[in-house]
Structure formats: C-alpha cells, structure tokens
Amino acid sequence: MDDISVLVCDDSALMRNVISRVIDSTPGMKVVEKAMNGQFLINKLEFTKPDVIILDIEMPVMNGIEFLRYRKTHGPDIPVIILSSIAEKGASVTMEALELGASDFITKPNGSVSVDINSVAERLIEMIASYGGAQARINGKNVYSADFYIRLNSERAIERKLHEALGDKAKDVSASLQKPVVLPKVMERPSSQEQKKVVAITPLHAPGKIKIIAIGISTGGPNALREVFANIDPDVRQPILIVQHMPAGFTKEFAASLDRICPLTVKEAEDRDILEEGHVYIAPGDYHIVVESAGLGKYQIRTNQLPQRNGHRPSADVMFESVGKVFGNNALGVIMTGMGKDGAVELAEMRKQGAWTLGQDEKSAIVYGMPRVAWELGAVQKQVSLEQMANEISTLAKANR
Fold first, then answer.
1. 11 among known catalytic residues
2. 342 or 171: whose pLDDT is higher?
3. Each residue's pLDDT tens digit, 255-299
4. Is 176 inside any structural domain?
5. What is the number of domains present in the chain?
6. Are residues 133 and 221 located together in one domain of the fold?
7. Are residues 107 and 244 in the same domain?
8. 221 domain residue, yes or no
9. What pLDDT, on a 0 to 100 scale, did the predictor assign at position 194?
10. Which of 82, 117, 143 is the last residue of a domain?
C-alpha cells in the first residue's frame, strides 16, 4: 500500500509539528516536506511532488493567498487544503482562497493545541484521504479508500473516550482496537463486483410538480457547489435548500461567495425565513434546518440545535426528512460528494413518497460516500456527473414546476 504524500506549509513551527504528527501517525499518510511560507513552498515543489498541500493563509514573505495566485498562473495542479483561523476575517479570506482554487479548508486548533487538536485531526485526516487520495490515484498510487479512514477515525474516537473514562485502564483495550486498522487490505476500496446490491424502491406515488429542491453535500462540496450554481439556469424558480457540512462562522461568507457567481439569490438561511422563488438558502453552520408551513400557501425555514445526526449539525438527513414530510412527492432531493452516509436514509424515504431524486456519480465525486450509500439504498433515480448536475437540476425544475 502506498502513502498519500503531504507537504505542510505554515510559519508556526509548533503548528507544522502538530499537523505533521497527526499525519505521520496515520496509516497510509506521510509528510514529505515542510515549508514556513509560500516562497519556501514554491522552492520545495521544484524537487518534490506531494499528493496534497496543507497551506496556512497568514505567513510572512509570501502568504497563502499570494501562493494560490502564483499557483493559478504557474501551477502545480496539486490539491490545496487551507488552514484557516476561525475569526470572521478568517472566513472571508478562506472564501477568497476557495475562489482562487483551493480545494477545501479546515479550521486551526485554537486555545490549548494539545486539547483542541483532537477536534481537528479527524477532519484533517478525512480531507487528506479525500483530496490527497484522489490525487494519489491519478498519480498511479494504490492507497487506502475513504472508508478505511472512516473506520480509523471511529476507532480513534472510541480510544479517546476510553482514556477519558478509564484512564490508564484503557491502554490494553485501545491497543487491541488499533491492531485491525493497519492490516493492508482491511478496508481497501471495493471493486464494482463487491459493491452492495442496490435496493429497489417502488414509490407510493408518482413524482409530482417540484415545489422545492434540497441538496445535501459534504467533503468536496465547496467547489462542487461553485460549479453547479455558476451554471444553474436563471429561470429556476423553486427555492433551493442546501446542507453543506461547514463550521459555524463560515456559511455566511460561503453563501456570499456563491451569490457572486450565481444567477439566483444565495443567502445563509435564517430562522423564519419565508421561502422565496429564485432563492438559495445555505444552512448555517452548527444549525439544522427544517421547513414548515407558514400559512396562506407559504413555507418557512426553522433552525435548531438539536443533537447531531450522523455526526453532523447541520445534517442532510434532518433537512431531507423535513422536506419529505412537508412536500411529499412535490420535491427534488439531490445528494452529492461527501464522506459517510448523511442524507442517504432520508433521501430514500423521500423517494418512497415519490419525490424526484438525483445523486452525483462516482467518477466526478471527490468522495463517493454519501451518494454511494444513497444509491445502494435505492434512494437515487439517476446518477449524474458534476459537469451535468446544473443542467439536470435546471431541466427537471423547469419541466415540473
């Protein structure tokens, strides 16, 4: 099994070492170089070609934004994951980085790094597995699948909880938990012949007129949504709800960045927003969104902080469940790139009620996790490439409104 090679660029020696320890302690991943600013990074890239770059934004000499501008003109075409601060200014600059071609972002540990790193490590591993893994396969490497890292993150989380609850007594148990994850073939990507049999769903009702569109998406989502909404037909009138797994403090800026390129109006959803034609509503970070009747034929968004579902808040399952109950077969549900299974179960319930459904195909998804599970559950009527997704949504929405 080959390693996903990573280059870490941050002006803080502490942060470089902390991030590197997380990566180097993860099976199938290896830090091959470190750099203290964008200029050093360019120099390092002359003799090493990593599968993914972890890039800080605020650095002396050449900062992350300046490097991304250089990369846009000179290359190399290597995925870049941004290390972002959680401040409001950090959100704005992070969206600029995505507009310049960064693949995604992760918030830096804050406060006590030794304590907060656990909250960042799982997401970091997920992103390296997703973006770096895809690039490594393009480079001809045989690397672990995203499913392998889902299991690894789960077992590490169990280990941490054991240590919190049992202290030193947890050592023997956690050691046994770690043994399976280093087996070279335990979670390799299954071949098409090994995929689960697809469940056949017979809807209770025929698909009706589409009154609302709901999209669930995760890892790989920021750039995928930029492509979809830059190309959406301006004549799509149905309100569109989106759950994009993203931290609190970033969704407002993300909505604003989409609004700049989308012919429809894009905003961060707010509690009691009345759904309007030609509007796109992004679920706010750390809040679920649901829909309910507002009377007189109108509908409104409600936000809440009920417990996470599938490890997420906002959760696509929560949104799809609500849309299915309120709109039945008068809805279009779309599930796109993302690790895990959020959205799959409730999209299947929507399909049972006769709703229209689409799923992103394996070839174009950064992570074929959420859409794969949805497909296997029979939730997806049609699989669509990212390139064709905007046209497919637009065509269905206009023909069935």
1. no
2. 342
3. 999 999 999 999 999 999 999 999 999 999 999 999 999 999 999
4. no
5. 2
6. no
7. no
8. yes
9. 47
10. 143
Q: What percent of the chain has pLDDT over 70?
A: 87
91, 121, 143 — which closes off a domain? Answer: 143
If we measure between CA atoms, which residue out of 256, 242, 224, 253 comes closest to residue 288?
A: 242
Asked, for residue 162, whether it belongs to a domain, the answer is no
- Structural domain including 372 reads 212-399
Residue 116 sits in the same domain as residue 241? no
Q: Which of 51, 245, 322, 361 is catalytic?
A: 245
Kindly state whether residues 234 and 367 are assigned to the same domain.
yes
Q: What is the CATH number of the domain that holds 373?
A: 3.40.50.180
Q: pTM of the full predicted structure?
A: 0.89
Residue 164, pLDDT score: 61
279 is catalytic: no
At 178 the pLDDT is: 45
With tokens 């830059």, the residue in question is 230
pLDDT in tens, 46-81: 999 999 999 999 999 999 999 999 999 998 999 999
283/245 Cα distance (integer angstroms): 9
Strands 52-56 and 29-35: unpaired
My answer on whether 231 and 139 are in the same domain is no
- Is residue 245 annotated as a catalytic residue, yes or no? yes
Does residue 88 register a pLDDT over 70? no
Are residue 248 and residue 110 in the same domain, yes or no?
no
What are 211-239's pLDDT values in tens digits? 999 999 999 999 999 999 999 999 999 99
- Is 379 within a domain? yes
Which of 3, 56, 317, 342 is catalytic? The answer is: 342
